[in-house]
Design a protein that fits this description.
alpha+beta; 4-stranded mixed β-sheet; elongated; 196 residues; 20% strand; single chain; 3-stranded antiparallel β-sheet
Length: 196
Amino acid sequence: MSERTCIITRTRGPSDMMFRFVVGPDKLLVPDLNNHLPGRGAWLVISRRVLEKAIKCNAFAHSFKQDVHISDDMLDIVEQLLIKSALGSLSLARRGGSVITGALKINKAIRSGNVVMVLYAQEAAEDSRRKIAQAVHAATSQGSAMITVATLFTSEEMSLVFGVNNVIHAAIIQKGLTADGFIKRARQLIAYRDEG
């Protein structure tokens, strides 16, 4: 995978852990999270703080050597694009058999060592979080690989993906490309929010 250099931090890294931005014909800055848009790109490490700094110090204009118009809500636009992308990948992972729901099933899968990531909805009760955290701790204490635990979505967003009401927990089990695709998108969202 090709490496890119962040225009702010000067950090080099793989393109899947960086944002690409391009300038449209109207000189409007466009986030290109899938790296498919034509034209020269400017790259940033995935971080809301870094994007905010790039906007404040006019880094895009310097990088593109022209005036660049940036939407006032660019920080939120990028976050919404990341959420949409992650939810789409979660849906694919669910259809590919890489996602389980239900606290009891998740608890059992964690203890058997099959889980790589646990998702809580933002509305998850502290008691249910604690029970799953205990299962994660027990599994990792017994030699299971590290399990990422994240709160990325609302219950409503998760429920739309699963087609049922009130989804509060989900677990990703390692089962091929669909799980890998979601984990990549989830890590991007975590990095953007500076939660990882």
